[in-house]
Amino acid sequence: MGGRKPCCDEVGLRKGPWTAEEDGKLVDFLRTRGDRGGWCWRDVPKLAGLRRCGKSCRLRWTNYLRPDLKRGLFTEEEIQLVIDLHARLGNRWSKIAIELPGRTDNDIKNYWNTHIKRKLIRMGIDPNTHRRFEFNQQKVNEEEKVLLVNSPKPPSQPEVPLVLQNDTSAGNLNNLADVDGDDDQPWSFLMENDGVVGGGGGAGELTMLLSGDISSSCSSSSSLWLKYGDLGYEDLELGCFDD
DNA sequence: AACTATCGCAACCGCGCGGAT
DNA sequence: GATCCGCGCGGTTGCGATAGT
User: Fold this and answer.
1) Are A92 and A163 found together in one domain?
2) Nucleotides of B under 7 A from a protein CB
3) 3-state SS string over A147-187?
4) Which nucleotide is nearest to A91 (CA to C1')?
């Protein structure tokens, strides 16, 4: 597209963290002018008396000031949903956010990158494909590589066939927690300390449910789940999470 | 107590899409 | 059809908070 000028090139515009005063002005404006009634975001700084670009105002509102935002930790259900939706939609955070009322795409993206992604990698699961890493195509960082080198042996079997299940079927993530034998919540393994699975090459096979063409094989009402239900505790090497 | 490393979140940046002209 | 414009999205960065040494 031709020659579009940057939105924030105006001199004298503030950047960086918002002050309480700026927040107040923006909230006041949006409270009085309502939802998109005869204005566009580009006009907001002028109308609200802010020295910010419109884009910055929009981001501040949508990611932080909106009254319907939910703050705080993600619940097990939300984490479960994020993984499920990410398997189906990929990094389309805004689409994922639609399914999580009160969470913004930025929230979800941050949580994915700082919590879920790391955990999956350490479990030997590629967070992009939701499948096990191929042993010779590790995308893990140096730390994980060391762990893999120290693991007993590379996978000796091909991936276990992938299975698709509905929400109501047995093989959902709750089974993962159940094999643990304790009272932890299903996603406690993601929410607690950084346990390390004994590398992608351990004896156990983590079985992924995700088939190749996820979007076409999954109805809107079904969920894709990591399938652990048929595997034992030792097989999954989940003991590491007990540390 | 001081320093360093790591984490987590808010905010920025650049690009693409879609509607308007 | 070409261009402009506003918006939204996804990736990345900056920095304060916290943990570890």
Assistant:
1) yes
2) 7-14, 16-18
3) HHHHCCCCCCCCCCCCCCCCCCCCCCCHHHHHCCCCCCCCC
4) C10
Phi-psi region of A96 (alpha: psi -120 to 50; beta: other; left: phi over 0): alpha
Using CA atoms, how far residue A104 sits from A44, A83, A95, in Å, is 21, 15, 10
Residue A1, nucleotide of least CA–C1' distance = C3
Other C-beta atoms closer than 10 Å to the C-beta of A35 total 5
Same structural domain for residues A178 and A237? yes
Question: Which tens digits make up the pLDDT trace of A22-65?
Answer: 888 888 888 888 665 678 888 888 888 888 888 888 888 888 88
Q: What is the residue range of A27's domain?
A: 20-65
- CA–C1' distance A181–C12 (Å)? 40
A42 touches strand C (CB under 7 A): yes
Closest nucleotide (CA of A113 to C1')? B8
Check whether residue A44 and residue A153 sit in a common domain: no
How do residues A61-118 score in pLDDT, each as one tens digit? Answer: 888 888 888 877 888 888 888 888 888 888 888 888 888 888 888 889 888 888 888 7
* Protein-to-nucleotide distance from the CA of A240 to the C1' of B5, whole angstroms: 24
